[in-house]
Structure formats: structure tokens, C-alpha cells
């Protein structure tokens, strides 16, 4: 009898021991609003404050119940994560005069405490977002009270009992750090960057070529990784692209391409929506690296993309246990309406990249296959991509006409502004606008039309 009880446990342990893959969580853009439901400072002007749900509203940033639920959702869907990446933007979108350094730090402290409570033994890699500063976006390339305070708040994660003093040093200096995550046949390194230093809205670093000397340091780290045969995961809050100043964007992207051989993946948040990007080699011929952009926990609509609402999201990245190469990711979400109406706070899988798009893994070559498939007229995968981009709100169809589709595809394959603009100009929508629009009703009909929008 006792053996019967033990069998499932033994089977679970054996599966764990012989599993070829492992995973980590990526949680970003929580934007926790401590005033939700009272002053509701983060809510949009048109929000109906009498109808705010307990777990959040698409008109506001996250209440505590949602932040807590997201962290608990990671626990329930995989408490055995190898590590967690907490990719920043913990502070709400509110008027600047309602915030202060103290309020910024208090909000981050509350989330830090909750992560420690739920994951007391899991390594956490925290990042700075453009909202994790006062005034917002103005993160400097030099030491200041916020970097100092966060270095102290996070020192057990960053310094691991005194094993990584240089991590604290670079974090205090510029909000960035690197450390070895695990030593297998080769060492696996985390490169955690403060890309807010390159943000167009950051006046504190405007006119400085290499704020915080992060570029020089980044190159040193990547060069060292090449010499030492290490492999590197790159974590950023703001992804390179149109949010970066153009020169710094080019410099960042050149570094990624130059050292692509050692880079396992680039992981970002900030956009609040779900997408991916592909880096090509200098000849723009071969894909060399993939960047993955995770959607936000905060369901607030309308700040980074015109008023398209979405559900709260967290992401699980699955990697090869022995090589640490990225295999797939699973996007989890909370159906906000159900949480509010029925207290159902189950975080469910929305989709897995490889299963949805029918590819073996998420290496750069497979990302290209998926992206190129999108180009087909009325491609069903593109329809799935666009729905998932907005985390399946189930509040009606979000249209994406030919111009919109072109912009999406050009953004995936072009991280440089000039190349992106050229791509959009080159793609030809003439005569196809509207007809290229996908929706569930017309999908079957347009699928039979073997017309290609792109060349
Ligand atoms: Zn954000
Ligand atoms: Zn951000």
C-alpha cells in the first residue's frame, strides 16, 4: 500500500532526474500600483473607477492581488525553475508628482519580499526598467541613491553571500552586471544590461556616447566569454530597436552580431506585448541570434500601443539542461475577466512557440522559417502571432491590415531603423489593403488565395 502511494512520487523524481530540459521564468512590467482601488493613480482618465475588478482592469496598472497572483502563478506552474529573471518596470504609470524615490523603492521592496517568500531558494536576476527610477526614464550612467539602495536590497541575489563583489560594484556604478549562472562543460553566463541608458526618453544620458561605460564593459565581457568558451544569456528591459537612440542602437546591435557565437539568446520586456526579433550577420544573409520580447503583467492599455487591451502574462523559457541552449518558451496568462468574475486565478498556458508554429526549437534559423511563413497572404500562423501578441483577451478580433502586417514582419527582421524603413517601403501593399486583413470569418476564404504580399 505504502509502495502504491510512493510510486507517483518516485516516477516524478525519475522524470526530473532524466529530463533533458529545464526552465526559467521571465516576469516583466508588473507596474504595481499601491493606490489601486483607492486613489487609483495609474488608471486612465476614462476608467470607470466603480467597476475595477479585484485582480485588475485593462484601464489601470496591476493591483497587489494581481502582482501577488503572478508570482504565485510562477510557483504553481513550476516551482522548480532553475532561476527567475525579473525584468523591471515595477512602478506604476502615474503622474510624476505622485511619485518619489521613496515610493519607487517601497514598491520594488514589496515585490522583492514576495519573490523571496515564494522562491526562497531560487536565484533571481533583477533588472532595472525605465520606470524603476525617479523621475522615470532618467536613469543615469553613474552611481545614485536608487542604484545604491537596490544593490543593498538585492545583495543576496546579486552577491550570493560575498561570492560576486564585482556584481555589486557595476550595479552601483551603472545598473548592470554579469555573473556565472552555472558551470557545466562550459560556463553559462548572465549578462544583465541597463538598456534604459540608451532610451530616447532618457535626458540624463543624452549626448553621452557610452553612458556608464556599459558598452566598453559589455564588449569586454563578451570578448572574455569568447576566450573562455563561455555561453551567454543577455537580459535587457528595453529591447534594441526604435526605442534606442539610433547610434547606440547600431552599436548595441553590432556587438550582438560580433559575439553571436557565444550568445544563447536575448530576452527583453518593456513593450508590454509579445514578439520576437532576428539578428542577421553583417552581410545580412544568415540569422545569428534571436531576441524574445515578453508581454507584461500589467494589463494597462494604451501607453505603448494604441488602446489594445491584453491579459496579464508571465513566460517560461525552456532550455537544454546540459547545454543551456534555448529550446522553446511557453506563454502563460491570466484571463482577467474570469479572475474578476469567478475568482479563478489559474495562470494557464496560452501557447508554446514550437507547437504553435510547428518548429523543432526557437533557434535563429527556425525563427526565420516562422517569419518568412508570415509573409504569405493570409498566413494562418501570422493570424495566431497577432492574436498572441495581445495575449488573447477574447474581447473581439484585433485587426491587422496589410500595412500593419508589413510593419510587424519588418520589425521582426530589422533591428536597425534605416533597414526597417527600407523594408517597409519595399513591401508592397498596393491593391491589397483590406483584402490582406485577417479575421476568423474571412480566414478560410482567403487561405485559398495563393497570393503573396511580400517579395
Ligand atoms: Zn513597462
Ligand atoms: Zn519599460
From TrEMBL:
GO terms for cellular component: extracellular space. Keywords: Glycoprotein, Hydrolase, Metal-binding, Secreted, Signal, Zinc. Residues 24-272 form the Calcineurin-like phosphoesterase domain. Residues 287-425 form the Sphingomyelin phosphodiesterase C-terminal domain. Its cofactor is Zn(2+). One of its GO terms (molecular function) is phosphoric diester hydrolase activity. Belongs to the acid sphingomyelinase family. This is Uncharacterized protein. It comes from Capitella teleta. The lineage of its organism: Eukaryota, Metazoa, Spiralia, Lophotrochozoa, Annelida.
Amino acid at each position: 500500500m505504502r509502495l502504491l502511494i510512493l510510486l507517483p512520487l518516485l516516477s516524478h523524481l525519475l522524470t526530473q532526474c532524466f529530463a533533458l530540459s529545464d526552465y526559467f521564468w521571465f516576469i516583466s512590467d508588473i507596474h504595481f500600483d499601491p493606490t489601486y482601488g483607492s486613489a487609483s493613480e495609474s488608471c486612465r482618465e476614462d476608467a470607470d473607477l466603480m467597476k475595477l475588478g479585484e485582480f485588475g482592469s485593462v484601464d489601470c496598472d496591476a493591483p497587489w492581488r494581481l502582482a501577488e497572483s503572478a508570482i504565485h502563478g510562477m510557483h504553481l506552474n513550476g516551482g522548480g525553475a532553475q532561476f527567475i529573471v525579473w525584468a523591471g518596470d515595477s512602478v506604476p504609470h502615474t503622474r510624476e508628482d505622485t511619485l518619489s524615490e521613496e515610493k519607487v523603492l517601497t514598491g520594488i521592496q514589496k515585490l522583492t519580499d514576495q519573490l523571496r517568500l515564494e522562491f526562497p531558494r531560487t536565484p533571481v536576476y533583477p533588472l532595472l526598467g525605465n520606470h524603476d527610477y525617479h523621475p522615470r526614464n532618467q536613469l543615469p550612467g553613474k552611481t545614485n541613491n536608487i542604484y545604491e539602495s537596490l544593490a543593498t536590497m538585492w545583495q543576496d541575489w546579486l552577491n550570493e553571500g560575498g561570492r560576486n563583489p564585482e556584481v555589486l560594484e557595476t550595479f552601483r556604478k551603472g545598473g548592470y552586471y554579469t555573473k556565472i549562472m552555472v558551470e557545466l562543460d562550459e560556463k553559462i553566463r548572465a549578462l544583465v544590461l541597463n538598456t534604459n541608458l540608451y532610451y530616447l526618453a532618457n535626458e540624463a544620458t543624452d549626448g553621452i556616447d557610452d553612458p556608464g561605460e556599459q558598452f566598453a564593459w559589455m564588449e569586454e565581457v563578451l570578448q572574455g566569454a569568447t576566450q573562455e568558451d563561455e555561453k551567454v544569456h543577455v537580459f535587457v528591459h528595453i529591447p534594441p530597436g526604435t526605442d534606442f537612440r539610433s547610434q547606440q542602437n547600431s552599436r548595441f546591435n553590432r556587438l550582438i552580431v560580433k559575439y553571436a557565437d557565444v550568445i544563447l539568446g536575448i530576452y527583453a520586456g518593456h513593450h508590454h506585448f509579445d514578439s520576437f526579433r532576428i539578428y542577421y550577420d553583417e552581410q545580412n544573409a544568415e540569422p545569428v541570434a534571436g531576441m524574445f520580447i515578453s508581454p507584461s503583467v500589467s494589463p494597462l492599455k494604451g501607453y505603448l500601443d494604441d488602446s489594445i487591451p491584453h491579459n496579464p502574462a508571465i513566460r517560461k523559457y525552456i532550455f537544454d539542461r546540459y547545454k543551456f541552449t534555448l529550446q522553446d518558451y511557453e506563454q502563460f496568462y491570466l484571463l482577467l475577466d474570469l479572475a474578476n468574475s469567478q475568482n479563478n486565478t489559474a495562470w494557464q498556458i496560452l501557447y508554446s512557440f514550437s507547437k504553435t508554429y510547428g518548429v523543432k526549437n526557437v533557434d535563429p534559423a527556425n525563427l526565420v522559417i516562422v517569419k518568412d511563413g508570415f509573409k504569405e497572404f493570409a498566413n494562418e500562423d501570422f493570424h495566431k502571432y497577432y492574436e498572441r501578441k495581445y495575449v488573447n483577451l477574447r474581447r473581439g478580433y484585433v485587426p491587422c491590415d496589410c500595412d500593419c502586417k508589413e510593419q510587424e514582419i519588418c520589425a521582426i527582421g530589422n533591428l536597425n531603423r534605416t533597414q526597417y524603413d527600407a523594408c517597409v517601403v519595399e513591401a508592397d501593399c498596393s491593391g491589397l489593403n483590406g483584402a490582406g486583413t485577417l479575421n476568423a470569418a474571412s480566414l478560410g476564404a482567403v487561405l485559398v488565395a495563393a497570393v503573396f504580399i511580400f517579395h
